Amino acid sequence: MPAGSLPIYGNYRGYYTKRPYTDARLALLDSDFFTGKTVLDIGCNEGWISCDIAQRWGARKVVGVDIDDELIQHAWKRRRAVWSLSAPSEELTPDSTSSESQRKRKRDDGDTQLAVAASRCGSIAKSNHFPMAMSHLFGPLPIPPADAPQASLCFPHNVTFRTADWVKTGVRDDAEGYDVVLALSITKWIHLHGGDEGLLSFFRRIHTVLIKGGLLVLEPQGWEGYAKAKRMDPKLKETAKGLVLRPEELTPSLEEIGFSLMRTAGVTGEGGFRRTVDIYVKS
Fold first, then answer.
1. If residue 182 lies in a helix (H) or strand (E), which one and from where to where?
2. Is the whole-model pTM more than 0.85?
3. Which residue ranges does the record annotate as region Disordered (predicted)?
4. How far from the centroid of its chain's Cα atoms is residue 20's Cα?
5. I want to staple 269 with a disulfide (CB 3.0 to 4.6 A). Which of 5, 44, 134, 273 is the partner?
């Protein structure tokens, strides 16, 4: 987004610097919610949540996508910054990976071992071990090679970022399918750009890339927030005139697509930012 232009896709700069380090929306979820899972974070902004899930929640793989390439570049920097603050991981020490027989046994164990390794990485990768001043003074720490045993399952190798208008094109990682898809604070922008059908197409694409039984974590933005957003651009204002679907009425439409509401995890925020976090399951 060029300097001075308006964030008409919700692509705000410094969005997560205004939030606590541990995002309140993630705090509503169970501690093992992402353990061993493949996760898609749509509208990842500068990658704070994507990195948090990859590092602290034991995810097997996290893909963050955003329409704004500048934000994606910041997300890659965030990945390295978080890595530089982390405690050393025992998974990547020479003593724990030197035995060829151990490596072979891990390869032969299949998907169960992959999930266990991802879980171990999540528990070992401790955040904020080093002070931020270390990176400022001496630069970020080098990232270990991705071909080290189990490295691809551990932070930071288990998180990647893509620039894409995911609503229209998706990304290559979609072909593998996801266990969990996050759609946090983005429905308003998709709705104002694509209208009712554009928003429904977005949910249909999510349904397509989720595995059976996969979960959609949805934070719909309230209707009252559309008034300010649509004033950013004449096209958004024009689209808003034809909107019939309301954020608080999404469940019936999602059920028609093939989702079932599992539960409302809770409510976060205050004022216009007070929103529910709903968990849907692909039937």
1. strand 178-184
2. no
3. 89-112
4. 16
5. 273
Q: Can you tell me the distance from the alpha carbon of 252 to that of 280, in angstroms, rounded to the nearest whole number?
A: 12
What the block records as the tokens of 247 is: 């954020």
What amino acid is encoded at 208 in this protein?
A: T
Residue 43 CA to residue 143 CA, distance in Å, equals 25
CB 179 within 8 Å of CB 147: no
Task: Find, among 259, 174, 177, 157, the residue nearest to 218 by Cα.
Answer: 259
Please give the backbone phi and psi of residue 219, each rounded to the nearest 5 degrees, phi first.
-115, 90
CA atoms of 136 and 144, how far apart (whole Å) = 20
The amino acid present at 204, given as its one-letter code, is R
Interval 63-110: pLDDT, tens = 999 999 999 999 999 999 998 887 665 544 444 444 444 444 444 444
Taking a C-beta distance cutoff of 8 angstroms, is the pair 213, 260 a contact?
no
- Quote the tokens at residue 212: 């059976």
Burial 66-101 (b: 16+ CB within 10 A, else e): bbbeebbebbbebbbbbbbbbeebebbeeeebeeee
